Hints:
This protein is an all-beta fold. 1% of the residues lie in helices and 32% in strands.
Amino acid sequence: xxxxxxxxxxxxALSTVALxxxxxxxxxxxxxxxxxxxxxxxxxxPTPSEPQYDTRLEHDExxxxxxxxxxxxxxxxxxxxxxxxxxxxNLEIPWDLAFAPNGELFLTERTGRVLRYAExxxxxxxxxxxxxxxxxxxxxxxxxxWFVDGGEGGTMGLAVHPAYPEVPLLYVYYTANVGDERVNRxxxxxxxxxxxxxxxxxxxxxxxxxxxxxGRITFGPAxxxxxxxxxxxxxxxxxxxxxxxxxxxxxxxxxxAAPENESPGDPRVFTMGHRNPQGVGFLPDATPLADExxxxxxxxxxxxxxxxxxxxxxxxxxxxxxxxxxxxxxxxPMDGSTWAPSGAVFYHGDTVPALxxxxxxxxxxxxxxxxxxxxxxxxxxxxxxxxxxRYDADWxxxxxxxxxxxxxxxxxxxxxxxxxxxxxxLYAITSNRDGRANAPFPTERDDVLVRITQS
Length: 455
């Protein structure tokens, strides 16, 4: 049996309540290493007991702290100098990070670990039951492999119950071995217990594959749990309303279908026709946005309950013509390259004022952060500047006009997720040890958790 108390990893001394007081790294300084050796053995796990908490929440989006139906999109340029402070190094392909309401920071690593920041250290929380070890390349390795051992699966999405710590539940989406097959599993753990893996409930299981596993989970403004699932290479199922692959799901905190999903099939489905969505964010008026991987044209989408986003039938302008498929807000140029968009956040903070009120997306292939300004009809658009692109073609979704700019190009490598911290700063994690990074990544300190502020 694998103990849940994994070896400790050093982290910079941050405040667990607000993560305040961080200063920019100085040249030549080193962040504490997160490298560790796990020497536990054994694989058996007793039958878990389900945590007994009242998971119910109020579902009133107008009570959300970020709710502002009169919000205005910025018309200024987001291009600015940013400062990056490395907080933890030598992580193994971190995939998600989430802040609890009390300021605690949780992380997942695709190799099968869930971590928590506490008292100036990163400590192990749990190893999900039957989780695959997705593998990783060594820091500084020149090896290039399109897939490490776990393909695109592993321990992925992470979310904290909004009533934490009174309801001490941590939600995790991960790839598990079940007999000779793999599934993607959504569970929650009671992290107040010494061994959370013994105090867990499975909320959802969907097919898994070597590709297109989705995996992002997050609580939205109305306290529903949003879950993205990839098509797992089964393209024909993405548009099947009775299948849970190739979807964005909206669930209650106990895993049931949220009301008013408007699905023509499985009631847990919010939208369908997706290939591999990995980012979800919310405008101040609670409008949901998502981003998803190509092929070819990656997209940013405005999510509307019950709508079909066209995969695999439509991905190009002419394929949407004459259909009811919901068109994207922005689409990557058809030039053979890719953003490879992943985790995202609509940033409300003022610690990085140039990026405030914009949709920020970590991108993998282009190794940067994409900054999308989301402008309602009639609003003033930001200047294009040096890196800007406007998405205003007449065939795109006209609910908003998107303008993208680039940030931290080539400075972090493959940015897997961007999150707003309780101190108003931005936090990001990289996936440079997954075998797909371009030189000079991975470096000897990859992978990293960083804090981003405005210079």
